[in-house]
Amino acid sequence: MSLTDGAGAAAGTLRGGPRRRRVRMSGDRGVPLPLLVPALIGLAFLVVPLIALLVRTPWRSLPEQLTSAEVWQALELSLICATAATAVSVVIGVPLAWLLARIDFPGRGLVRALVTLPLVLPPVVGGVALLMALGRNGIVGTYLDSWFGVTLPFTTAGVVVAEAFVAMPFLVISVEGTLRAADPRYEEAAATLGASRFTAFRRVTLPLIAPGIAAGAVLAWARALGEFGATITFAGNFPGRTQTMPLAVYLALQSDPEAAIALSLVLLAVSIAVLAGLRDRWMTPG
Amino acid sequence: MIETFDAPADAAPDGLDARLVVDRGTFRLDVALAVAPGEVVALLGPNGAGKTTALRALAGLAPLTGGHLRLDGAELDRTPPESRPVGVVFQDYLLFPHLTALDNVAFGPRCQGTSKAEARARAAEWLDRMGLADHTGAKPRRLSGGQAQRVALARALAIRPRLLLLDEPLAALDARTRLEIRAQLRRHLAEFEAVAVLVTHDPLDAMVLADRLVVVEHGQVVQEGSPSGIARHPRTDYIAQLVGLNLYRGEADGHTVRLDSGPAITTTEVLSGPAFVAFPPSAVTLHRGRPTGSSARNVWRCEVAGLETHGDQIRADLTGELPIAADLSAAAAAELDLHPGTEVWATLKATQTHAYPA
Amino acid sequence: MIRTVRRNRRPLRVAALGAAALLALSACSSSAGSSSKKPGSSASASSAGKLSGTVTVFAAASLKESFTTLGEEFEKEHPGTKVAFSFGGSDSLAASITGGAPADVFASASPKTMKIVTAAGDASGPPATFVRNRLEIATLPGNPDKISSLKDLTRPGLKAVLCDKEVPCGTAAQKALNAGGLELTPASYEQDVKAALTKVQLKEADAAVVYKTDVRAAGDKVEGVEFPESADAINDYPIVRLKDARNAEAAKAFIALVRSAEGQRVLTEAGFLKP
């Protein structure tokens, strides 16, 4: 069947490998129907909503919608917060991943489960949990407030915290996987050359796992960009300060669906552009 | 556990003085090593004997559970690997793939606090000595096996170690490169003024590169000595096989060594008490019928268990009165019409045997 | 960055797609079952015995407590009937009704949201206002910040939250602020009235402008402070039977109960004002 041949050839071209006219594995036998049908349904399921968004976009009023200051404010805030949350995740998530991958300590399995919990936790629950911990009245937030005069809810920093909370597990899981796959003996080799454990990590391990960190950072960034539940619960909603794109989309939907569609379109375009851009540079091996 | 009394520190000579004890579940390594500066010692043994564990213990990568480790009089037992004056050439080199050959070699000096420029200058010098001046900017994946091996050696030597460890330094190379690199490595080791310990399961590598062999089996030292001494007087089946000899252990009485398994071997040496007898497979002659006119003093009835080509010879594995490996030419094997199961008579001249006290 | 002087607020208009999208957001419980068999004489709430089946009521979130009570009374009065509620934001509910969600009665928190349904031709007749709701300031228990007026919320350092301008309670709050000639920069525009109230309950905010009924429902976790400007921002709650009601008779009876003296007693107890 030409479908698979085309895909195989395309993949070959993407990898820069030798162009093969036919994928030998599938040959001329085609794709079995019990696989093809669900596969096409799955594809449609993921793609049709996006197409629908494009179809129903109010193209005529779109320029007007997109030039409104509110949209740009929300977009700018979204990009800044997602990037900051990713940076926070990298700075504290990579060492955490290293700890999980390299140090055998009692209760490691439990710690790993705790780290992955935000992946399955409804983000709103995450937001409530963050309020309990870092809110003005939270178990840690109380001291942040009384000692340093720092309160996180209703601030841009709060948005970053909420996004990092939800996005960091993606990075930790991705980096830990890369670390486990990386040969720990490189660190031993560095040690025999006089490198302390930290120097070995910085000068050897870190460059070796850079592609994994990049992939994890992209995942975390994408997750942070789309974050809604934890953000609105923990950081509230104030234009220019805590109102990110997803919040703007949701609230616009209450009264002005066209604006919501326009905003969604912007978010979609930005996500696609960034993911495609990074994919070329970082995510393909070789 | 055997209690050993460590010599007082002030009497400690230069070089390596170690007793490496590592307990790991059912496996226990207990190896004593004393190596003088300038000497090259090979740890030789089969896979799983504990050679690599011993090497890792010397490098500080595996903690000692007992014994001691002194290098040039300094206690190293508790010293972390990064603080030991020990350089390691790993089996698959473990060159850092993201760094050039030059930066790989400069890595150690950099970690020791040398400035970047000086570390690179020193690295360039080492690569030049290894004949790799043209490859300083190459990433490891662009280097051939032999080049990578030399970069790994340069990297280990660049930290000016007092103990150089080499783990199967030639195992990753193909046969032709191996020959060439072995000769080069021998030269570099000869120039090296401190202690060198290499680990290998290849007797040829060990004999060419090392001044002294330490044979390790099941975590214990089973024999130690010069390459030629060990080749001539193997004391375990493993070494006998490595050097291609038939080896038996028994009680000597005059010209006769009565083996623990029953039969006796007549030898030229006169000995008494426990003894080894060794002879090469090529010394054995095979006959289809009981030989009558042979002058050989040793005659055994055997059965062919297996046949394989061994160079331009055929190696016959014999069972029966005495398990023997015998080498014969292909023509002889055809003439005798040997198959597994064939009954044969093996003869051996006393002058071809070599007996020594166990 | 491009800035336009004109703020782009479009007139309220729910496109079909918007409605469809909202369908996904609103939890719509539909269990509309049997249809009415007999023509009922159901002007009075006490006409018992002739009704059966399930009546599905979509009602604004602020009606949850009082409508649940009335639903139980209704089922007791008319054995064999069942009242199924879907409580949510009035906007979302309206959108799901125009999107075809099966409902018999719609009780909304603002005429504006009711208009969405009537404009789409989904109502069986003109809606009737059955209660009104008034704003109140919710403060921390004991009112530690001594808030006594809407103006106090503009004090620097005080963290006040409002509902987003897109939702009815936010529109009402804005109206009250305008009436008092006040300008308030809140800590946050919350997505609905319950979220605003929660921020005070969790002590993250010092005060929130919410409905009187919400303050009362929160019990002693917050303290209510009335303010005169709220008179200018009173929300009418309209109720209507829907055109596609599958259980029209029961729907009529339920609306009658809500508007009866008993219904009004339950609602005013919850803090609502009589129309």
From TrEMBL, chain B:
Gene3D superfamilies from the UniProt entry: 2.40.50.100, P-loop containing nucleotide triphosphate hydrolases
- Determine if Glycoprotein is one of this entry's keywords: no
What are the entry keywords?
Answer: ATP-binding, Cell membrane, Ion transport, Iron, Iron transport, Membrane, Molybdenum, Nucleotide-binding, Transport
Please list the residue ranges annotated as the Mop domain. 293-357
Highest taxon in the source lineage? Bacteria
Q: Which residues form the ABC transporter domain?
A: 2-243
Q: Does the keyword Nucleotide-binding apply?
A: yes
Query: What Pfam family is a match, any one?
Result: ABC_tran
Q: Which molecular function term from Gene Ontology is one that the record holds?
A: ATP binding
Write down what this protein is called. ABC transporter ATP-binding protein
In its UniProt entry, the species of origin is given as Streptomyces pathocidini
From TrEMBL, chain C:
| Record keywords, A-Z | Metal-binding, Signal
Source taxon at top rank: Bacteria
**Matching InterPro entries, A to Z?**
ModA, ModA/WtpA
Q: Name one Pfam family in it.
A: SBP_bac_11
Q: Does the keyword Ubl conjugation apply?
A: no
Q: Where is the signal peptide?
A: 1-32
Family to which this protein belongs: Belongs to the bacterial solute-binding protein ModA family.
Name of the protein in question: Molybdate ABC transporter substrate-binding protein
To which species is this protein native?
Answer: Streptomyces pathocidini
Classification of source organism: Bacteria, Bacillati, Actinomycetota, Actinomycetes, Kitasatosporales
Q: Which gene encodes it?
A: modA
